[in-house]
Design brief:
alpha/beta, 10 strands, 207 residues, two-stranded antiparallel ribbon, TIM Barrel
Amino acid sequence: MNPRIKICGLRDPEMACFAARQGADAIGLVFHAPSPRAVDIETASRIVAALPPFVSTVGLFVDADPAFVEQVLARVALDILQFHGDESPGQCRRFGKPYLKAVRVKPGLDLLEYASRYADARGILVDAWVPGVPGGTGETFDWALLPQDLPLPLVLSGGLHAGNVAEAIRQIKPWAVDVSSGVESGKGIKDADKIAAFIKAARVAAD
């Protein structure tokens, strides 16, 4: 299977379009102010408007006020919402948009039970558990903790980069891979060469 590739945390139209030209299937926009990858609504709107067709746009939120999510949706043409906080299933579905639910994986977490709670999600995004940080840490986690029979499409995140994404794809066979810090030269600063290398490595692994 050829896994989908999402480049997350983009903050300008030029780099987003570069990622799309390299073969990214989706770009992620972070609407969480404490993140070094956060983007304002006006910039996000310009990024989405600049993208070529058939590239999905994903908006990332962390326990956001519903009014803020609605404000974003009124200005930015997002295809999918991605929730990284403690949002309940009802809070995730209230906006009438397809959504992904992120979960930070650690020993003792029942991923099958977790996925069953969010049965109407388009997929479960698994990330590394780091205390007090909702994502984008650059840390990996033990892939052996992932069950083989997860009932929803799996989006693999957490510490991926060009050097390990091929092995991750071969081992896990995820529906998609998601990278942010692994294609940066510094926090929040995307690196074109690293984006190109990541996408190439992911495509080669699927051949």
